[in-house]
Amino acid sequence: MRTLILLRHGESGWNSQNRFTGWIDVDLTPRGERQARHSGRLLREAGLLPDLVHTSVLTRAIRTATLTLEAAGRPRIPVTRNWRLNERHYGALQGREKNAVLREFGEERFRRWRRSYDAAPPPAAPDTARGLACDPRHAGLPHESMPRTESLADVTARLLPYWHDAVVPGLRAGRTTLVVAHSNSLRALVAHLDRLSPEELPALDIPTAMPLRYDLDEHLVPLVRGGRYLDPEAAAAAAAEVAAEGSRSSRPTR
Ligand SMILES: O=C(O)[C@H](O)COP(=O)(O)O
Predict the structure, then answer these.
(1) Which positions are annotated as active-site residues?
(2) What's the structural domain count of the chain?
(3) Tens-digit pLDDT profile for residues 130-178
(4) Ligand 1 contacts CB of residue 187 (under 6 A)
(5) Could you tell me which pathway this protein works in (predicted)?
(6) What's the CATH number where 219 sits?
(7) Residue whose CB lies within 8 A of the most ligand 1 atoms, among 21, 59, 205, for a mutation test
(8) In the chain, where does DSSP find H-type helix?
């Protein structure tokens, strides 16, 4: 049996303000830091100690991984970072309040942009892609392929090569593997593992900082479809909050 743990980063500054974030590099709030440490304690209590870690190149995921590993008592294990685990590029919606986008474009478009498989939000301005191309974190991503928006299908297409080339070999070698990433890169990964259909995808919401355990057979098929959250009740409540984003107001950061 192989064990994979999926973890969305803790609350970021723009999560607390209810803003679309995507590839914008927003740090954790103090609450997000506490959530990350709590995730580490949950891992330790469950005896789930990762051997390998993969994160995106975004600060909120990198810092969540660091804080989680410290609290789990595994601060020095190998961590690999790659842009392929980044959040979906949310195009021109990045930085905008979710409530305002819902009001401006209506429920149907808002839901399609957030939760359908194939709809991409309107693209960001071309100069945003030029800025990303200069960032050394995206070395290996050709300038002309720098995204200005992404659907979940686009996220899946850029994520799966990393899954197969970098994550699967560790799992096959029996290493307990932690992937710290984002709402939509993890939705793409869960959809792949659980073979979710495009019709099942809209109902999938990944809460912040809730470790999700997948035990996989030798073909990397989950023994339990959907995996198991280490704290199922808290995860269900937090996932319902994610689903309701757009109709909630921002949260004070403490
Ligand atoms: O980038 C963002 O805005 C969030 O991290 C994920 O947003 P979503 O859950 O609305 O897709």
Answers:
(1) 9, 87
(2) 1
(3) 778 788 888 878 777 889 999 999 999 999 999 999 999 999 999 999 9
(4) no
(5) Carbohydrate degradation; glycolysis; pyruvate from D-glyceraldehyde 3-phosphate: step 3/5
(6) 3.40.50.1240
(7) 21
(8) 13-16, 30-45, 59-72, 98-105, 107-115, 126-133, 152-162, 168-172, 183-194, 232-243
